[in-house]
Design a protein that fits this description.
This protein is mainly beta. It has one helix at residues 5-26, and strands spanning 40-44, 69-73, 76-81, 84-89, 98-107, 113-121, 130-136, 142-152. The protein folds into two domains: 1-36; 40-152, no CATH class. Helix content is 13%, strand content 36%. The protein has an eight-stranded antiparallel barrel with strand order 1-2-3-4-5-6-7-8. A hairpin with an 8-residue loop joins strand 6 and strand 7 (130-136).
Length: 163
C-alpha cells in the first residue's frame, strides 16, 4: 500500500526541518563564533599587590607580589591572589555591574572555607574595563582586601607570585 503524496511530502519536510535545526544549533558551538563558550574575561592588578589577605584563615598573610588575577568564564569565576584563591561555580550575570558570589577561599597551605566574592564593575561585567573586588568570609571577616583590577586582553595567570 502506498501513502498519498501529501503524507510523503510532509515526512520529507519534517526531516529537512530537523536537519536545518541541527545545523543551526551546531553553528553556535565553541570555535564557530557563536555563543557556545560564553564569556572568558580576565582582569589583573597593575603593579604590586600590597596587603591582600591579612585576615586569611590560618594566619596566612601576603607580601607584595607581581599581580592578582580574576577570570570570569561561563559557569566559573576564579580569583588568584598571592595568599590563595577564590572559586565560584555557577551562573552569573554578565550584564550586571555588581555581583556577590558565594564560593570558597583556599588559602595557601590551608583548607578551603566558605566565602563571598564581591565585585563592583564600572559598567556591565561583560564590557567593564575595571573591577573593584573584595572577599569576605564568615561573619564578614575580610579574606582579601579591596583591590582594583583592570581588564586584560591575554589569558590570566603566568606571573602571579606564590610564597
Amino acid at each position: 500500500m502506498t501513502r498519498p503524496l501529501p503524507d510523503r511530502l510532509s515526512s520529507l519536510a519534517r526531516a529537512g526541518l530537523a536537519a536545518v535545526l541541527a545545523l543551526l544549533l551546531a553553528s553556535c558551538g565553541p570555535g564557530t563564533g557563536g555563543t557556545g563558550t560564553g564569556p572568558d574575561i580576565s582582569f589583573s592588578s597593575v603593579g604590586p599587590v600590597l596587603g591582600i589577605g591579612p585576615a586569611a584563615p590560618g594566619g596566612t598573610t601576603c607580601a607584595a607580589c607581581t599581580r592578582a588575577d580574576l577570570r570570569l568564564q561561563e559557569g566559573r569565576i576564579e580569583l588568584l591572589v598571592p595568599c590563595g584563591r577564590f572559586v565560584f561555580l555557577g551562573q552569573w550575570d554578565a550584564e550586571s555591574a555588581q555581583l556577590a558570589l558565594p564560593g570558597s577561599f583556599e588559602p595557601r597551605g590551608g583548607s578551603a572555607v566558605p566565602a563571598v566574592l564581591h565585585l563592583q564593575f564600572n559598567t556591565a561585567a561583560g564590557r567593564s574595563e575595571q573591577v573593584s573586588l573584595r572577599v569576605a568570609g564568615a561573619a564578614g571577616t575580610l579574606l582579601v582586601d579591596p583591590h582594583v583590577l583592570v581588564r586584560r586582553q591575554e589569558a590570566a595567570g603566568a606571573d602571579i607570585c606564590r610564597p
